[in-house]
Specification:
The chain is built from 7 helices and no strands. With about 130 residues, it is mostly helical. The longest helix is centred in the last third of the chain and has 19 residues.
């Protein structure tokens, strides 16, 4: 009997430490702290866990978009932010993040060595600029 209790306690401890018993609010708090500490990869992992439980969580999607921008996963970030703005077109946080996305995208395009002569890159620049307005 003692052995079963000990094994159950160990399994419970492992589950809690792995985040299985962690509340959505706690995961969100940890994700925000991770972003504040320059760890967008950890923040993304945490918010993806929240979204697995609650796919419609707007705050989690906002954190996800911010983490994706910081990781320069710009296509993913644009999709995340577009999802929010489709449901909530007046969401000020999403619009601010979209402006941050556009800034990152513009900087990325300007770093291309052939930007001055490549009309495709220039068209992408104009599109990103329009998106960020």
């Amino acid at each position: 009997m003692m052995r079963k209790t000990t094994l159950a306690s160990v399994l419970l401890y492992v589950a809690v430490m792995a985040g299985c018993g962690e509340s959505v609010a706690h995961r969100m708090q940890r994700a925000q702290i991770a972003l504040s500490n320059g760890k967008p990869d950890l923040a993304l992992k945490l918010v993806n866990g929240v979204l697995a439980r609650d796919g419609g969580n707007i705050e989690a999607r906002l954190l996800k978009g911010e983490a994706e921008v910081r990781l320069l996963r710009l296509g993913e970030a644009q999709n995340t932010l577009a999802w929010i703005l489709k449901d909530q077109p007046d969401n000020a946080k999403a619009h601010r993040q979209l402006a941050g996305w556009a800034t990152a995208r513009l900087a990325n395009l300007l770093r291309q060595s052939d930007f001055g002569t490549n009309s495709d890159l220039q068209a992408q620049f104009a599109s990103a600029l329009a998106t960020g307005q």
